[in-house]
Amino acid sequence: MNKTPGQLARRYNGYHRVSDAREDPELTRTGPHTPCGEYLRRFWMPVAMSGQVGERPVLVKVLGEELVLFRDLSGRLGLLHKHCSHRRASLEYGIVSERGIRCCYHGWLFDVDGAILETPGEPAASPIPRKLCHGAYPVRELAGLVFAYLGPPERRPEFPMLDTLSLPGVELVPYAIDYPCNWLQVAENPMDPFHSVFLHTRVTRAHFNPAWGAMPVVDWHPFEDHTGIYLTNVRRWEDFIWVRTAEVLLPAIAQPPDIFQNPDREKFFPGVGITKWTVPVDDTHCRIIAWRHFGEELDLDGKGDRSNVGLNKVDFLGQTGIERSYEEGQAMPGDYEAQISQGPITVHAGERLGTTDKGVALYRRMLRRAIRDLAAGNEPQQLRPRPGHQVPTMAGDVIVRAPASNRDDVALQRIMGREIGRIVYETMGIERSARRTEIERRVRAWIGAGLPAGSA
Ligand code: FES
Ligand SMILES: [Fe+2]
After folding, report:
1. Closest C-alpha to ligand 1, atom 4
2. Fewest CB within a 10 Å sphere: which of 186, 190, 370, 442?
3. 108 lines ligand 1 (CB under 6 A)
4. pTM for this one?
């Protein structure tokens, strides 16, 4: 029933606000042969932590598909459809073999690529192994995570080797966290830096550094090739201007810079705190599969704890449903509570987006366009390495000394965000360690030339 504006503005109007709005299936349904599911299947995504794959096969669910992940006795990883090609017994009860996995029921042996190696109860001349392959997906392992590609074989893209994954002195510690909700409400969170002011700082207490509580000046920029969005997130904290750049790479990669960043001194692009993927399990469950980064130039206050990073655990507050009681979650809610409490699949028609939600709205628009483009026959743009090195990324912190004066400080923050964001963007063609030096040189040169008159 339509509500009049008068009814919606009235107090005690619960009766008029009961909504029958539905979720947005174009962005939230990810099973096989759905438009979004087809789109997501064009990308490599992590499916498990290597540490989960031991002597026994592991049942994993990704994009609504039930799969079995295993490592055969010669060390190769396989990701196969759960149900045996013979009579559908689950391969989670299969016996890992020297080569592949053997179904428990009648002993058919499947290689990691789906080839049927043996059908021992059938005649030796059985045509089945020649005529049939079991459902299988390519996998690759990197720094404790297992990635898979679930799309059409002929469309398999290059693996997105980001420039943050091989930085000298940085250790990547894998982790995975289960969320009982749709993937999108978790994946869109990094485009909303304002929640850090409230959820992570002002509403209860500072989960990270108190500087997160300063209201930022934020700009969002789609990449020209439609591979994602980067934002500049600028704050004043005492005598420093802190410019944080971060990106979402479509469909669901995000890299929050140092999560324990303390803007108490000048810093030039020291690295990132996390590289993460949000992976749909099914339409009402998802998983963050990620690395925490540890290194000498990150977390200078020593707040991180690598021993608390792993399966359903990570070393900052409010990220899982198992570390704390419901009451503790109510007393000090974190990302987990804020995101799962939107519902199993959030209803966009029931939202009221404001100016702080521009990044979330832009991300949804870009996803929707990519999904529709693919449905119309146009393959999505993949991340590409720059010649000679890895896929360049934008995430990092630049913190410069710029004491407040009688100039308009918000205008100054906006100008500094734009200029420093431009410098970080324009240096993407440079390998990361040399790029840091170049960013510092260019930022110092720009500030040394005097801050623009427009900021006075
Ligand atoms: S069901 Fe697997 S071999 Fe028969
Ligand atoms: Fe958060």
Report:
1. 106
2. 442
3. yes
4. 0.96
